[in-house]
Specification:
The complex is a heterodimer of chains A (111) and B (114).
Chain A: E1 3-5, E2 10-14, E3 19-21, E4 24-26, E5 33-39, E6 46-52, E7 60-61, E8 64-69, E9 74-79, E10 88-95, E11 99-101, E12 105-110
Chain B: E1 5-7, E2 10-13, E3 19-24, E4 31-38, E5 42-50, E6 53-57, E7 64-68, E8 74-78, E9 87-94, E10 104-105, E11 109-113
Parallel strand pairs in B: 2-11
Antiparallel strand pairs in B: 1-3, 3-8, 4-5, 4-9, 5-6, 7-8, 9-10, 9-11
The chains are: A mainly beta (111), B mainly beta (114).
């Protein structure tokens, strides 16, 4: 069975600083995909970044990077230079035969 | 390019009624999946449709059903509503390879059951 664990219910970060959101996963599938989504208060899920299980390099998308440590089964999201608009719920998810989400981390960016 | 469209955005029903939610995927996308989001259970997978066939199903009772039409639009139906069905229902579409492709979500349909 697939499982995603996000141990940080909420995080605060000062504007312009970097923040790391933790995500660990468990799966027996050799091939899988890891995603991070942002959900603002409007409810829409916004795709941020994707990492394939066979990708050798960590994924990056603008200010977002995914710190993928396969042996430790972790896929932490790093947001550099936080902005006030980054305040939202962040979900880590894994795709094996279906998309499984973690419980989410609420991020609040302080000015 | 238009995103995933879900209708209605908000609705209120009473226990015992049924509800139908609609999802129009991004043009060209053939896979549509549905998720239920509640404060207590988080985001849970309901089902996935591809080319009008249900490809995968989550652990929900038979009151929850869905279908996909030839134009890839999808509907989900919940019959005999219960208070616990109050949730945000999210639809996502993808193309071409669901294993590696990004899922595009709609803004959701927020259902309140009284």
């Amino acid at each position: 069975a697939q499982k995603i664990t996000q141990t940080q219910p909420g995080m605060f970060v000062q504007e312009k600083e970097a923040v790391t959101l933790d995500c660990t996963y468990d799966t027996s599938d050799p091939s899988y995909g890891l995603f991070w989504y942002k959900q603002p208060s409007s409810g829409e899920m916004i795709f941020l970044i994707y990492q394939g299980s066979y990708d050798q390099q960590n994924a990056t998308e603008g200010r977002y990077s995914l710190n993928f440590q396969k042996a430790r089964k972790s896929a932490n999201l790093v947001i550099s230079a936080s902005q006030l608009g980054d305040s939202a719920m962040y979900f880590c998810a894994m795709y094996g035969n279906k998309l499984v989400f973690g419980a989410g981390t609420i991020l609040r960016v302080k000015s | 390019k238009a995103g995933v469209t879900q209708t209605p955005r908000y609705l209120i029903k009473t226990r015992g009624q049924q509800v139908t939610l609609s999802c129009s995927p991004i043009s060209g996308h053939r896979s549509v999946s549905w998720y239920q989001q509640t404060p207590g259970q988080g985001l849970q997978f309901l089902f996935e449709y591809f080319s009008e066939t249900q490809r995968n199903k989550g652990n929900f009772p038979g009151r929850f059903s869905g279908r996909q039409f030839s134009n890839s639009r999808s509907e989900m139906n919940v019959s005999t509503l219960e208070l616990g069905d109050s949730a945000l229902y999210l639809c996502a579409s993808s193309f071409p390879d669901r294993e590696t492709g990004e899922l595009f979500f709609g803004e959701g349909s927020r259902l309140t059951v009284l």
